[in-house]
C-alpha cells in the first residue's frame, strides 16, 4: 500500500512538472473563449494547434537560416507584444517540409471537425463570425514569405467550400472566424518562450491541443446518447465523431514521430490529459449507467430494429471479453443489414473498435511512451475479440457449435432438424456419459446403490431445482425431486394424494394441456372427474380468468403448464405466483414443466400447495426415460402429500428411516415408484450440465443465444410475416419466450410439406412440426447456427410465396 501511494505521488508530481513545462494552465485558458458556444469551444483548441504549428514553422524557417533575422517590423503582431524571438537550435529531424505536412494534416482535421458541427441555419452566431481576418497570428510574419503561396494554396484547398474562412491565410470568403478572439495569439505565444527545446515544447503543446479537442468531441458524441426516442438515432453522429477522433490519433502518431529523438517523447507520457483520454476511450463500451438508463433495460427477445434493444446491447459490449454475454445478439446485429438502425449501431461499434486500436497503436509504436503508459494503461491487445467474432463468423459458427460435432455428424446430409425434438440435441459429452454409465453399472452391479443415492440423485436434484428456481430453502419449506419414467407416472400418484369421495373429483385446468393429462382424464370419464376448463386464449387474460375459475369452483386439484406445447405460450412466473397465492386451502396445484425445464429460465414460487412435474428428454438433454416431480416438504412435519398409488423402493442406510406402514416413504422419496432404472438418463443429465458449467454456459446465456437466432429468423422472414403482430408480441420478459415458436397459417401443412421436400434449387430438408392443422412449430437449439436459421427462413418465404396468397404468417407468441 505504501509503495502504491508513493508511485501515485510520483506520478502526480511528474504530471504537474509536465503541465508546468508545457504551460498547460495558460494554454487551457486560450482554448476556452469567454461566452463561447459549444461548437466554438470544440474548434478553439484545434485552431490553437494550427497557430502553434505556424509558430513552429516560423521558428523552423528562421532556425534553418532562411531569414537573416526575425522580422519584428510587423505592426500587427510583433510590435504589439513583448515576445523575444531568437534563433534557436532545431532538432535535425524537424525541417520545413515536416512542419508543412503537420500543418496540412491539421487543416484537414479542422475541416472534418467543422463539417460535423456546422449548422447552416445558425453558423453565424454559433461561430461569432467577423468580416476581418486575423491581425495577430504568426502567419503575418514576413519570415514565412517564401512559403506564403504554398501555405495559402494548402489552406484554400481545405476550406474553399465552407461558408466562412478560418481567419488566417488569405481566402476568398467574405466572413471569417474571429480568429484573434478565439485563439488569443498574444497569450498563446507567451506560453512557448523557453530558452531551450522551444520546438519540442511547441510540439507537445500541439499534442495537448488535439487531446483537448478529442475530449470535447467525445463529450459531444455522448451528450445525447441515452434516448428512448426511436425517431432520433444518435448513432451516425457518434460514429462520425469517433472516426474523427481516430484520425486525430493517427495525426498524433505522426507528430510524435518527429519527437522520437527528443527528450520530449517520454514527457508526453506524463500528460494527465493523455491518461484521461486513454481511460475514457478504453471504457466507451460497455456503456455506463446514466440517469435514464433504467428506461433502456428491456426484457424481450433481441430485435435489431428496436432502438432500446440496440442501446441495451451496447450496455453489454465488453471489449475485454472474448465472448460477449450477448454474443448471439451481437452477431445478429451485424447480419441485420436491412435494418438502418442496426447498420448504424454496427458501424458505431466497428468505429469505436478502430478508435481503440488507433489509440493503442499510438503507444505500441514508441517504446518510450509504452513504458510510461503501462503503469496506467491496459496494454493488452486482445480487445474487441467478441466483435471480431461476431463480424467474421456470425453465420457458420457459434460459441456452442463445437460441442455438438459428433452428434451433428450422425445427421443425414442436407438435413436440418427444427422440430421441437430436434432442438434438444444432446452435446457430444452425452455419448461419453452413456459409455461411462455402462462401465459403472457393469463394474458395480449391486454395489452401485450407495453411489447412486449419495451422489447421482442429489446432483440431478440440484439441477432440476435450479432450473425451476426452487433451489433455495424458504425457512422450513424445501423441495425434493424424485425421478421416474415419465410425467404420466407422477400424475397418477399425485391424483391419488387427493382421496376422492363418492362424488367426482373437481379439476380446474386449461383447454390446452398435454396428452399426459388429457388422455387420462378422458379415460376416467365424468363418473370419476369433473373437468372445469379455462380457454388458454387470449393469453394476456388467461391468468386472471384461471384464478377466477379456481375461486368459483374451489377444486381439490388445479393443473396448468409452464409452456404450452401447441402454441409455445409461456405462462409467466408472475401469473403462476399469483395463482398459487390465491389457492383455496387444501387445493393442490400441479404445474407441468415438461416443455419448460432447461428451455426457459424460471423462478417458481415456493409453496406447500405447488408440485411440479416434468421430463428431461428434450431441453434438459437427459435422453428418454426421465420424468421428475418436485414436491414441497416442511421440516419436522408429516409429508404434505402422500400418494396411495405407491411402488417399491429398497430400504438403504442412506435413507432417514425405514417406513412404518406400506404407504409411508421416507420424506425425500415420497413419490418414488420402485427400484430406479434411470441410471443412464440421470447420469447423462448430470454430465451434460457439468459440461455446461465447466464452459460457463448458464441457462440464461444459452436461452439468450437461442432467442437471438429466433430474432434473426423472424427478421429474415420479411414481408412473409405480419410484422406488426410479431413486434407487438416480442417485447416482454425474455424468460417468457420458449426456444420454440409457432407460426400460424391456414396452409401450415402445405408449408410443412414444402420444407420437408427438397427442390432443384434447395437440396436441404427441414424437419418441423404441424399442430392443430394451422400451426407450424419450429424449435431452435443450442447447436443451430445463424446460417441454418437464415436458410430455414428463406425456405419458408419461398414456400409461402408459392401459395400465391395475401395471408401472412402470424407469430403466435
TrEMBL record:
InterPro entries: PyrdxlP-dep_Trfase, PyrdxlP-dep_Trfase_major, PyrdxlP-dep_Trfase_small
Source organism, top-level taxon: Eukaryota
Entry protein name: Aste57867_23498 protein
Gene name of the record: Aste57867_23498
Amino acid at each position: 500500500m505504501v509503495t502504491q501511494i508513493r508511485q501515485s505521488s510520483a506520478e502526480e508530481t511528474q504530471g504537474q512538472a509536465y503541465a508546468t513545462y508545457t504551460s498547460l494552465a495558460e494554454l487551457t485558458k486560450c482554448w476556452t473563449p469567454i461566452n463561447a458556444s459549444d461548437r466554438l469551444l470544440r474548434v478553439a483548441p484545434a485552431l490553437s494547434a494550427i497557430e502553434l504549428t505556424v509558430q513552429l514553422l516560423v521558428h523552423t524557417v528562421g532556425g534553418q537560416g532562411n531569414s537573416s533575422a526575425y522580422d519584428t517590423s510587423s505592426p500587427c503582431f510583433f510590435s504589439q507584444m513583448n515576445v523575444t524571438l531568437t534563433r534557436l537550435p532545431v532538432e535535425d529531424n524537424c525541417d520545413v517540409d515536416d512542419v508543412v505536412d503537420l500543418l496540412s494534416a491539421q487543416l484537414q482535421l479542422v475541416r472534418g471537425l467543422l463539417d460535423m458541427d456546422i449548422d447552416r441555419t445558425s453558423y453565424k452566431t454559433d461561430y461569432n463570425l467577423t468580416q476581418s481576418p486575423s491581425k495577430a497570428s504568426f502567419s503575418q510574419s514576413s519570415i514565412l514569405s517564401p512559403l506564403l503561396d504554398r501555405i495559402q494554396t494548402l489552406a484554400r484547398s481545405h476550406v474553399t467550400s465552407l461558408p466562412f474562412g478560418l481567419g488566417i491565410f488569405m481566402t476568398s470568403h467574405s466572413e471569417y472566424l474571429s480568429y484573434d478572439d478565439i485563439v488569443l495569439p498574444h497569450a498563446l505565444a507567451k506560453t512557448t518562450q523557453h530558452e531551450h527545446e522551444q520546438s519540442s515544447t511547441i510540439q507537445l503543446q500541439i499534442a495537448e491541443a488535439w487531446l483537448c479537442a478529442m475530449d470535447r468531441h467525445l463529450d459531444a458524441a455522448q451528450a445525447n446518447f441515452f434516448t428512448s426516442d426511436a425517431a432520433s438515432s444518435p448513432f451516425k453522429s457518434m460514429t462520425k465523431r469517433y472516426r474523427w477522433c481516430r484520425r486525430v490519433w493517427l495525426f498524433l502518431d505522426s507528430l510524435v514521430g518527429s519527437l522520437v529523438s527528443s527528450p520530449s517523447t517520454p514527457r508526453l507520457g506524463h500528460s494527465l490529459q493523455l491518461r484521461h483520454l486513454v481511460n475514457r476511450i478504453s471504457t466507451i463500451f460497455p456503456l455506463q449507467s446514466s440517469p435514464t438508463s433504467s428506461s433502456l433495460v428491456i426484457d424481450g427477445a433481441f430485435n435489431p430494429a428496436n432502438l432500446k434493444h440496440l442501446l441495451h446491447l451496447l450496455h453489454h459490449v465488453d471489449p475485454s471479453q472474448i465472448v460477449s454475454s450477448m454474443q448471439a445478439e451481437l452477431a445478429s446485429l451485424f447480419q441485420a443489414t436491412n435494418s438502418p438502425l442496426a447498420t448504424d449501431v454496427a458501424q458505431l461499434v466497428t468505429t469505436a473498435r478502430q478508435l481503440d486500436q488507433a489509440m493503442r497503436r499510438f503507444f505500441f509504436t514508441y517504446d518510450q511512451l509504452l513504458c510510461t503508459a503501462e503503469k496506467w494503461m491496459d496494454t493488452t491487445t486482445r480487445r474487441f475479440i467478441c466483435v471480431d467474432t461476431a463480424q467474421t463468423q456470425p453465420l457458420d459458427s457459434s460459441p456452442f457449435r463445437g460441442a455438438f460435432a459428433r452428434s451433428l455428424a450422425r445427421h443425414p446430409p442436407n438435413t436440418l432438424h427444427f422440430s421441437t425434438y430436434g432442438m434438444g440435441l444432446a452435446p457430444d459429452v452425452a455419448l461419453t456419459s452413456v459409455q461411462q454409465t455402462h462401465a459403472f453399472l457393469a463394474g458395480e452391479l449391486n454395489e452401485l446403490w450407495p453411489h447412486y443415492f449419495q451422489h447421482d440423485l442429489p446432483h440431478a436434484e440440484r439441477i432440476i431445482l435450479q432450473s425451476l428456481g426452487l433451489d433455495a430453502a424458504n425457512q422450513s419449506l424445501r423441495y425434493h425431486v424424485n425421478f421416474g419414467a415419465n410425467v404420466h407416472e407422477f400424475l397418477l400418484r399425485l391424483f391419488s394424494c387427493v382421496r376422492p369421495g363418492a362424488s367426482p373429483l373437481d379439476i380446474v385446468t386449461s383447454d390446452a394441456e398435454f396428452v399426459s393429462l388429457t388422455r387420462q382424464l378422458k379415460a376416467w370419464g365424468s363418473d370419476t372427474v369433473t373437468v372445469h376448463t379455462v380457454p388458454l386464449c387470449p393469453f394476456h387474460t388467461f391468468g386472471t380468468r384461471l384464478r377466477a375459475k379456481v375461486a368459483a369452483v374451489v377444486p381439490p386439484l388445479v393443473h396448468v403448464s409452464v409452456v404450452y406445447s401447441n402454441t409455445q405460450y409461456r405462462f409467466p412466473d408472475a401469473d403462476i405466483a399469483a395463482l398459487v397465492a390465491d389457492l383455496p386451502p387444501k387445493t393442490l396445484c400441479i404445474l407441468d414443466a415438461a416443455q419448460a425445464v432447461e428451455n426457459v429460465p424460471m423462478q417458481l414460487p415456493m409453496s406447500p400447495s405447488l408440485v411440479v412435474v416434468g421430463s428431461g428428454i428434450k431441453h434438459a438433454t437427459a435422453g428418454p426415460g426421465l420424468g421428475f416431480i418436485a414436491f414441497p416438504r416442511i421440516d419436522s412435519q408429516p409429508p404434505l402429500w402422500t400418494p396411495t398409488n405407491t411402488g417399491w423402493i429398497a430400504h438403504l442406510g442412506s435413507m432417514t428411516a425405514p417406513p412404518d406402514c406400506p404407504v409411508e416413504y421416507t420424506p425425500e422419496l415420497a413419490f418414488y415408484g420402485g427400484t430406479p432404472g434411470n441410471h443412464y438418463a440421470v447420469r447423462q443429465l448430470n454430465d451434460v450440465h457439468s459440461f455446461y458449467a465447466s464452459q460457463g454456459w448458464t441457462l440464461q446465456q444459452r436461452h439468450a443465444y437461442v432467442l437471438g437466432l429466433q430474432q434473426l429468423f423472424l427478421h429474415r422472414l420479411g414481408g412473409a410475416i405480419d410484422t406488426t403482430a410479431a413486434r407487438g408480441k416480442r417485447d416482454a420478459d425474455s424468460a417468457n419466450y420458449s426456444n420454440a415458436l409457432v407460426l400460424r397459417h391456414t396452409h401450415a401443412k402445405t408449408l410443412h410439406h414444402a420444407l420437408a421436400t427438397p427442390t432443384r434449387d434447395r437440396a436441404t430438408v427441414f424437419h418441423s412440426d404441424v399442430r392443430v392443422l394451422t400451426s407450424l412449430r419450429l424449435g431452435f437449439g443450442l447447436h443451430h447456427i445463424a446460417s441454418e436459421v437464415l436458410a430455414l427462413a428463406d425456405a419458408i418465404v419461398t414456400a409461402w410465396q408459392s401459395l400465391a396468397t395475401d395471408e401472412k404468417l402470424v407469430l403466435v407468441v
